């Protein structure tokens, strides 16, 4: 029963990184619409932010398996 509860908890915890990724790329789209010439710099920063947010999700699933 605890393994199932860990996965339900992880499922709820993925809402945060999902919203984070959405906000990052929404900001890039908005910035690109305002200044198209800055697209390269914005995308580089966006990929770094995406990697950091996804690392939190990967740590979360690792903890769900370790604690279960």
From TrEMBL:
<feature type="site" description="Reversibly protonated during proton transport">
    <location>
        <position position="54"/>
    </location>
</feature>
<dbReference type="InterPro" id="IPR005953">
    <property type="entry name" value="ATP_synth_csu_bac/chlpt"/>
</dbReference>
<dbReference type="InterPro" id="IPR020537">
    <property type="entry name" value="ATP_synth_F0_csu_DDCD_BS"/>
</dbReference>
<keyword id="KW-1003">Cell membrane</keyword>
<feature type="transmembrane region" description="Helical">
    <location>
        <begin position="41"/>
        <end position="67"/>
    </location>
</feature>
<keyword id="KW-0812">Transmembrane</keyword>
<dbReference type="Pfam" id="PF00137">
    <property type="entry name" value="ATP-synt_C"/>
</dbReference>
<feature type="transmembrane region" description="Helical">
    <location>
        <begin position="7"/>
        <end position="29"/>
    </location>
</feature>
<dbReference type="InterPro" id="IPR002379">
    <property type="entry name" value="ATPase_proteolipid_c-like_dom"/>
</dbReference>
<protein>
    <recommendedName>
        <fullName>ATP synthase subunit c</fullName>
    </recommendedName>
</protein>
<keyword id="KW-0138">CF(0)</keyword>
<dbReference type="InterPro" id="IPR035921">
    <property type="entry name" value="F/V-ATP_Csub_sf"/>
</dbReference>
<keyword id="KW-0813">Transport</keyword>
<dbReference type="InterPro" id="IPR038662">
    <property type="entry name" value="ATP_synth_F0_csu_sf"/>
</dbReference>
<comment type="similarity">
    <text>Belongs to the ATPase C chain family.</text>
</comment>
<keyword id="KW-0446">Lipid-binding</keyword>
<keyword id="KW-1133">Transmembrane helix</keyword>
<dbReference type="InterPro" id="IPR000454">
    <property type="entry name" value="ATP_synth_F0_csu"/>
</dbReference>
<keyword id="KW-0406">Ion transport</keyword>
<comment type="function">
    <text>F(1)F(0) ATP synthase produces ATP from ADP in the presence of a proton or sodium gradient. F-type ATPases consist of two structural domains, F(1) containing the extramembraneous catalytic core and F(0) containing the membrane proton channel, linked together by a central stalk and a peripheral stalk. During catalysis, ATP synthesis in the catalytic domain of F(1) is coupled via a rotary mechanism of the central stalk subunits to proton translocation.</text>
</comment>
<feature type="domain" description="V-ATPase proteolipid subunit C-like">
    <location>
        <begin position="8"/>
        <end position="67"/>
    </location>
</feature>
<keyword id="KW-0472">Membrane</keyword>
<keyword id="KW-0066">ATP synthesis</keyword>
<comment type="function">
    <text>Key component of the F(0) channel; it plays a direct role in translocation across the membrane. A homomeric c-ring of between 10-14 subunits forms the central stalk rotor element with the F(1) delta and epsilon subunits.</text>
</comment>
<keyword id="KW-0375">Hydrogen ion transport</keyword>
């Amino acid at each position: 029963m605890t393994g199932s509860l860990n996965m339900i908890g992880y499922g709820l915890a993925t809402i945060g990184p999902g919203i984070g990724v959405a906000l990052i790329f929404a900001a890039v789209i908005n910035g690109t619409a305002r200044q198209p010439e800055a697209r390269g710099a914005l995308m580089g920063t966006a990929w770094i932010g995406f990697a950091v947010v996804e690392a939190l999700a990967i740590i979360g699933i690792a903890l769900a398996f370790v604690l279960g």
